Amino acid sequence: MSATSQPIAWYIVRALLRIYPKAWRREYGPELADLLLARPLSIQTIGNVSVSGAAERIRAIDVTTQLGLAAMAVILALAVRNVAGLFVETTKTLPTIVVAPLMSELYVLFLVGGGCWFHVRRGGTAAAAGVQAMKITFIAGLPVMVIGLFMLTDVIHVSNPAHHALNPWAVLFAPLFRLPECWIWGAVGAQVGRRLPRLARTRGKGTVALALVAIGVVGAHAAQPPGPSVPARFDVASVKPNNSGEANGSLREQPGGRVMAANMPLRAIISFAYQTNPFTLVGGPDWIARERFDIAAKLETEPPPTPPGSANDPIALAMRTLLADRFKVKVHRETRDVDAYALVLARPGSAPGPALKRSTQDCSPEAMRTRAAGGATPAASGTALVPSCGARMAPGRLQLGGLSLASVLGPIGGLTGRVVVDRTGLAGAWDFELTFAPDSGRGIAPAPGANLPAPDPDLPSIFAALQEQLGLKLEPTKTPLDVVVIDSAERPGPD
Amino acid sequence: MARKPKSGPASDPELLILASLAEGPKHGYLIMTDVEAFAGVSLGAGTLYTAITRLVDKKLIAPQSSAGRQRPYRITAKGAAALADQLAGMRRVAAIGFARLRPA
Fold first, then answer.
1. Which of A27, A151, A262, A342 has the most crowded CB, counting CB atoms within 10 A?
2. DSSP letters along B7-50, please?
3. Is A356 left (phi over 0), alpha (psi -120 to 50) or beta?
4. What are the distances in angstroms from CA A414 to CA A378, A393, A446, A491, B41?
5. Which residue in chain A is spatially nearest to B68 when comparing CA positions?
6. With an 8 Å Cβ cutoff, are B44 and A38 in contact?
7. According to DSSP H, which parts of A86-226 are helical?
8. CB atoms < 10 A from the CB of A480, how many?
């Protein structure tokens, strides 16, 4: 770098010297400044002095604070990892239950108060008060660390299913990870203590005392157990293999935060937990589609109502934790190009087939709500057989009333065994009734023992029916799809 | 952090500073130019003062009182002994290395 003009260099040198700790500057600052100004300042020199200054500053910090800073770096790294983890499903859980008492608002208040006391009584600096707070936390965290040590050495076993996923290493180190936060709160307390006398002088002792009481009340209130939060974990859960050989199974959510799965393949339970359909759940060992289980589980409290299939269904979220604990299920999400069918007009540019009619019904959510409230009947549909509003599927029959074609993509996908995407360009609501040979698709086989009507050789396949009756056809294509990939799963041990 | 045209023990900033001060007291700028001249190593200002701080802490060198802003540093008896010790070790290594390099 070329030499900078003298006044600018002087400012740069002054800024560089600020990197060094004050005591160092007093001892060596003037001569280093002279030396730097004696030669043209280069980028290398600026970098060299910056690194040297940072090293001296770190050297000037006492060992405890250095440890605190190192721990903060670890926490930062963990935070980055956790943020990255938002995009990847993991089965690891952090020991929030064990750590929570350490970081309640009351504890923070205690640390701030301790720092304040330390400053007022002993005249300690903010840094020293922070160190005191770290010592308090370390001592308070010793029992937690002993629990972690006992978990690691199998001296104690965690019997509460709600704590099954606790990682012993995380329990062991949790109090240490909290030290930097406690250092900050202690230091904040000392700063508060430093300002108290001046505040008392300028605002009056009564006002300061009132403010402290108010802070205490707010802190104590904040430290009350939060409202009815629902942890993503069942309070009690029972998992049993079902070897009955029965074909039918069921999985139902019940009032009171209960869920009952009876004779369900593990794949179907995973599909429930991750809110997937057969196309968006892939991978995993073969046995998870074969081997069936009974699960009875209950959340601690009644969860708030969530729409069916919601990604935030507390029972589904708790089921993920249960699957991770008992079946060691590991999954990740990714986008894959999958085989699909595009639903297109059989003759592009022309009208659709005779059975596909533009709907005269208003089945928008708003109209449905008004109807439900007022009991009014929908406008008469063009076809008496078509459901008034909605999509309905029966063996060999698919009906749509007053909804967009997107509403039947799922059922058609189920019949054909591939994801179906709508590329008809037909917007708006439609009515139709489609009849086809029940087993004509290549999709999911009906459950064994299902009461299917006798096959009619005159009925067309789903592919032909779409073309002949609705003027639509299915073209093979590829489409990107967000899928949940099962990385691994294990058979569960006994309850 | 030295800008290193060379690497190895002879580029150690603390050793170079001790070797420079063995000749007599010098202030920072003179040490820098001297080291550059006799060892071909260009010490950065930060590196120089980090090394000076360490050497003062270890009592291997000591600042001398001075009227100006630039304080000269002198090597202490302890520093001279440490330098002699290090150089003797380097001489031993150098002698063995050269002997082994000689064709048989």
1. A151
2. -SGGG-HHHHHHHHHTTS-B-HHHHHHHHHHHH--EE-HHHHHH
3. beta
4. 29, 11, 10, 28, 76
5. A31
6. no
7. 96-99, 105-122, 126-152, 168-203, 205-222
8. 10
Shortest distance, CA B69 to any CA of chain A (angstroms) = 6
Q: Do A45 and B70 lie within an 8 Å CB cutoff?
A: no
Yes or no, beta carbons of B28 and A35 under 8 Å apart: yes
- Nearest Cβ partner for B44 among A28, A48, A55: A48
Q: Name, in order, each residue with C-beta under 8 angstroms of A336's C-beta and a sequence gap of 6 or more.
A: A282, A480, A481, A483
Three-state DSSP class for residue A205: helix
CA–CA distance, A460 with A437 (Å, rounded to integer) = 6
Q: What is the pLDDT along chain B (104 residues), one digit of tens a residue?
A: 444 445 555 678 999 999 999 999 999 999 999 999 998 888 999 999 999 999 999 999 999 987 777 789 999 999 999 999 999 999 999 999 999 997 65
Inter-chain touch B70–A51, beta carbons under 8 Å: no
Q: Tell me the two tokens of residue B91.
A: 């001489």
Q: Which residues in chain A have their CB less than 8 angstroms from residue B42's CB?
A: none
Give the DSSP letter string of A38-68: HS---HHHHHHHHHHHHHHHHHHS-HHHHHH
Structure tokens at A469: 């009756």
